[in-house]
Design goal:
Blueprint (H helix, E strand, L loop, with lengths): L3 E7 L27 H18 L2 E7 L9 H10 L4 E4 L7 H10 L1 E7 L4 H7 L4 H14 L3 E8 L7 H11 L3 E6 L13 H20 L5 E3 L4 H9 L23 E4 L4 E3 L8 E4 L5 H4 L29 H8 L37
């Protein structure tokens, strides 16, 4: 159990972009815009605090949308966070940021502001809209000057993975405090995300080389290896080793779904993970989150149900991305399509027949 519990809170769908890989508008760019009322936001906030009190966790919020700054009660919500001394990060767009806005965000307690960069100029603007690339890089300076940590996040897919090292260069040049990337989750759109395991491993290899080059130069940008397949890569290359005191049956890292994270949508729907389609586990307007956590959320903590990961040496530390597995095959516990672990490279135990075709090992985590 981690000390902090993170709530990814979408307060509105309102956004001045229609990105090609957006979960909200995938398959329906004209969907109804949902937003919480001020009363609903207050109820949600205190429901989250109640959860943390029950389970002795410290709350951390990722406020997002859409673009949360477009919500008419955005600043009132920040006042509520400030009054309760609750830390938060904003996941938003660059278009409404300037030095004054960023100073106000800092005053209310904003620790980080995450922007997206999904390609070099032509590719990024194709994903999002004309002018987005330059606006994003320019906003990094405003965020930094206010004393907020600037984060550049990239969504990697077949459409842009060969540009990632160039994106790293752009993020470092702009002065981003943090750079990270995660993989695109198929969500019904037309984006081709079909990287092979070999292509993805090669991408990690290229990024690892780039990261080390910058670190050797004393670069101030922190490279956050967010994707859990970094664990597989670093274990394979010897950069990371299994702790000697690992206890069988314990989960130490990897995917946070069902462990220290959940998502709340503007409709009040509670999702185990925003990236996992159909992972609704309740509704914050109707349910106490503390109750949801020990009922419907249990469906996302059956670690022995992973087809492939349950046979893997790294089960307690990795598990790839179940959201990508779900988006690809429709099964949360299915195989991560970019994972290259196998019996041949010594990471997987031999397959055994069991209920539903899953690996059966009484010593596996449950």
């Amino acid at each position: 159990m981690k000390q902090y519990f993170s709530f990814q809170w979408h307060i509105t769908d309102e956004c001045d972009q229609r990105c090609k890989h957006c979960y909200i508008f995938s398959g329906d760019v004209c969907k109804k815009i949902d937003s919480m009322t001020w009363e609903q936001m207050q109820d949600t906030f205190y429901n989250c605090l109640d959860f943390c009190k029950v389970y002795d966790r410290l709350p951390y919020f990722y406020i997002t949308g859409g673009d949360p700054i477009l919500h008419p009660d955005f600043w009132k919500l920040l006042e509520l966070f400030h009054e309760n001394n609750i830390p938060f990060t904003i996941l938003g767009n660059p278009f409404h940021l300037n030095d004054q806005v960023c100073r106000e965000l800092k005053f209310y307690g904003c620790e980080k502001y995450q922007l997206s960069l999904d390609g070099l100029k032509e590719t990024h603007d194709w994903f999002r809209k004309d002018g987005s690339y330059e606006s994003t890089l320019n906003a990094v300076g405003c965020i930094n000057r206010a004393g907020i940590r600037s984060v550049i996040m990239t969504t990697v897919s077949k459409a842009n993975y060969m540009e990632i090292t160039g994106i790293i260069d752009a993020a470092v040049t702009a002065g981003a405090n943090v750079f990270s990337f995660s993989r695109y989750v198929p969500s019904g759109g037309e984006l081709d995300a079909s990287m092979t395991p070999q292509e993805y491993r090669r991408l990690l290899e290229m990024c690892d080389k780039k990261f080390k080059e910058y670190e050797d130069k004393g670069c101030d940008t922190y490279f956050n290896k967010k994707d859990h397949l970094w664990t597989l890569y670093e274990y394979e290359t010897g950069a990371w080793k299994l702790p000697p005191d690992t206890c069988k049956g314990m989960i130490y890292g990897g995917c946070n779904c069902g462990n220290c994270h959940l998502t709340i949508l503007p409709t009040g729907d509670i999702y185990a993970c925003r990236r996992v389609s159909g992972s609704k586990v309740g509704n914050v307007f109707e349910d106490r989150i503390a109750d949801v956590w020990v009922t419907s959320m249990e469906n996302y903590r059956n670690y022995a149900n992973f087809y492939k990961c349950s046979r893997c040496t790294l089960l307690a530390f990795c598990r790839g991305c179940p959201a990508v597995a779900k988006g690809t095959s429709g099964d949360f516990y299915g195989d991560d399509p970019q994972c290259w672990a196998s019996e041949e490279n010594g990471l997987l135990k031999p397959q055994k027949k069991s209920n539903g075709g899953r690996y059966n090992d009484e010593s596996s985590c449950t």
